[in-house]
Amino acid sequence: MYAQMIKSEATKEDPEKLAAFQARIDADDKIEPKDWMPLGYRKTLVRQIGQHAHSEIVGQLPEGNWVTRAPTLERKAILLAKVQDEAGHGLYLYCAAETLGVSRDELTEDLLSGKMKYSSIFNYPTLTWADMGAVGWLVDGAAIMNQVPLQRTSYGPYARAMVRICKEESFHQRQGYDIMMKMANGTSAQKRMAQDALNRFWYPALMMFGPSDKDSVHSEQSMAWKIKMNTNDELRQKFVDQTVPQAEYLGLTVPDPAVKWNDKTKRYDFSEPDWDEFFDVIKGNGPCNTERLAARNRAWDDGAWVRDGFLAHARKKAARRMAAE
Amino acid sequence: MTPQDLFQYLLRLGDNTLVLGHRTSEWCGTGPVLEEDIALANTALDLIGQTQMWLGYAGEVESEGRSADDLAMLRDVWDFRNVLLVEQPNGDFGQTMMRQFLFDLWHDLMLANLQKSADPRIAEIAEKASKEVRYHLERSTDTVVGLGDGSPESHRRMQAALNLLWPYVGELFVPDDIDAAAVAAGIGPDPAGIGAQYRNLADEVMARATLAIPSDPFAHKGGKSGFRHTEHLGHMLTEMQWLQRAYPGATW
């Protein structure tokens, strides 16, 4: 998932209605747009789905950074297809959010003003072609870890959007790993590039799951509502357990000397990421926060005349149709 | 048609789609609205796919062991055979879509003819590509009409784009020896023949878009022959070919 630090809303509604609602959730019923739902549930979902949608949109930028420098026609086509999928994911998610009574334009304005966030991972730069591999392998890999359980989330439109998204994300992860394989088995310069990409993306990928459970406020209510299905630490551990052997297979070294198989827990031990860095990036001090937001604002501002022009044309057409009738 | 001529003929087809596909891909994630981002990426994707087919075949005809990637990534400006229109910079969204329309209209007519080519491989590629290009043309037509006959601002911008790009249209219809050889072999159409049809259709769309085609018949040329490209192409290739040039012999 590309949502992090979602503040869950407390709710002060009719206890009877709340109990009935919770019973539906507990029975794995899907909540649909016209059903009664607590205001807090609605608000938390808008925040979460909106942030996820924004992440897909901003997430086009670090990959778009390499579309024009892709090394072969096939790689260029695959990367274009992936970025196109991401725009499509943004579209489904904005539609899912619209079913909760918020428009895409409102959400967009909140992204552009900095009021709503997107995943911090996209505030890291993509510096070499190997980063296209690392983003697919690690970033999409971490996203899938979070999104697969969300296919069972309690809100129907969100769960259904997630089913489609997950299918495409697993293709993204595979293509990322495939790039890494080529690089890791390539020339010495390519190997260096691959290792360097892993070094830079390892901890930011771990941060994608959000702060440690002990510091993670607001999780409990979201979990009770089945908007969040697993804790941050559970998912992070699962990701490490899956990724370390993949790095070994590539002949790359995870940039954490503490990574070691633990025979007792049957899991990998690993170091926590630098949470100060995480909070800095969220506050706007990541390497690319300024550029990413400026790029989105520029695209929106530059596109204003296009949107106005199409609207003017639609009005003229409608007026002509009326006049003809 | 000699293999050398056929090779040149295929390079023209493949370089047009390569260069325009690349230009379109430069928009990645920065379109005016999400649906347009998706459509731009989709168009770029189609054009790159067509490039793989045209340049792949070109490499086979040349028989010197060059792949589509070798041709795309390891030739310099003077060996490119795309028309000047497609290498023009994106400008604003209106300019990009005007360029797209002016190319799509030709592309659609050209592919309709190439589907009847005496060369079965060309006919097959043209058939596949024409389905995609039909959609490109539909979309770019709607955009030119919508923004031409839109707000005063969008109208002004679309007219400016048409004025800027129209002088690059004529090159599409100027025949040369390679075209003549293609016509003689039943491989491809006479470009001048397509010109009249093109003008009728363009007039019709521009009338709906309330835009005026410039009256000056002047046409820039030099892309299709490779004699004189614009300065823009070199910068585009610098970016597009960078990895292959910086790390020769690596596989990606």
What does this structure look like?
The complex is a heterodimer of chains A (325) and B (252). Chain A is an all-alpha fold and 325 residues long. Chain A is built from 13 helices and 2 strands. Chain A has a two-stranded antiparallel sheet with strand order 1-2. In chain A, helix 4 runs antiparallel to helix 7 (156-184), helix 6 (130-150) packs antiparallel against helix 7 and helix 6 (130-150) packs parallel to helix 8. The longest helix of chain A is centred in the middle third of the chain and has 29 residues, at 156-184. Chain A starts with 14 loop residues before the first helix and ends with a helix. With 252 residues, chain B is mostly helical. Chain B has one domain (3-246): Ferritin, core subunit, four-helix bundle (Ferritin, Up-down Bundle), CATH 1.20.1260. Chain B has helices at residues 3-25, 34-62, 68-73, 84-87, 93-114, 120-148, 152-165, 177-184, 191-208, 231-240, 242-246. Chain B is built from 11 helices and no strands. The model of chain B has no long low-confidence stretch (mean pLDDT 97).
What is the fold's blueprint, element by element?
The complex is a heterodimer of chains A (325) and B (252).
Chain A: H1 15-26, H2 39-58, H3 60-67, H4 73-98, H5 104-112, H6 130-150, H7 156-184, H8 188-207, H9 219-224, H10 232-250, E1 260-262, E2 267-269, H11 275-285, H12 289-302, H13 304-324
Antiparallel strand pairs in A: 1-2
Helix pairs in contact in A: 2-4, 3-4, 4-7, 6-7, 6-8, 6-10, 7-8
Chain B: H1 3-25, H2 34-62, H3 68-73, H4 84-87, H5 93-114, H6 120-148, H7 152-165, H8 177-184, H9 191-208, H10 231-240, H11 242-246
